[in-house]
Amino acid sequence: MSLPKSLKILVTVCKVALALGIVIYLVAKIEGDAGFSRLVSEPKDWPFLAAALVLVLVSFSFSFVRWYLLVHGLGMQFLLSDAFRLGTLGFMLNQVMPGSVGGDLFKAAFIAHEQPGRRTEAVASVFIDRFVGLVGMLVVASVGLIFAGQSLRDSPLLKGVEVIVWTATAAGLAMLMLMTSRLVSGNWMQNLLGKIPLVGHPLSQLSEGLANFRSHRLYLVAAFCLALSTHCLLVTAFWFISRGLPITGPSFQNNATIVPMALVAGALPLTPGGLGLTETGLAKLFGTIGLRESDGAMVALCYRALTYVVAALGAFYYIAAKKRIDKLLVEAEELAEEIA
Question: Where are the transmembrane segments (predicted)?
């Protein structure tokens, strides 16, 4: 059973409104602390900012390779060059299409179009890729919590978040280990999941796709290792940004604790591309270690700007193949209706 179109539109409008509201609030907070004046007038350490951009680009490249491996693990033929093109296009679409058809379904529609009869595996590939990436992010966040400084450990905010992160990490790792088991990918589980209202059909498709990994476990292991590497690089990129901007940034130890938690906040499906959520999370976490919240927001917004370099590459590919991509977007819309 799919959601009414009017409700989907309302949800999209609410997501966009929430993102805009958060960004306006953060911009006002930065301006209140003269953050933009400092950004313009005080010197920046450009080598650190350039290094941050390189790390962001490499981390996104790792995520594209991760999806490429997962597609092959599901028994489908796929070119690495297509993984990069679709990866940048998908990221761009996730920023500008906050509705039911975003970058993930576009990528699934491409594979389904190229390989008729493999629609289930195509959809499963993007769901599994998202899940593996999220578990990798949670593991990095959990490791960061182990090395948290005393000021962070005494924070009421951290104590509340810590329980959530540890619980989610344990659940995610357990699911990851069960992904190749018949417990979650057998026919009985597919039938059981298919009966769940609203989300039953996509969950059943995901379970069916997981069955392929029982004979391709190494692909899943390699993808998880890439997920860990991706988020370690992003943590380092945030620290480079804080060193490059005219702000007082955290130590690398504190940075390694707070950044993964901010990224986890950004993974919540409350705004388009997590816009405003990562920024707010990092701002609040900066405050817990005695730094200005506005500086945390500036660091996160700078990171956001660097990721838009990837989105710009996606826009370039879109312009170069607009007619074909528009056709695939129509197919992605049909796919969204089918799995809803």
Answer: 7-28, 48-69, 131-152, 164-185, 218-241, 297-319
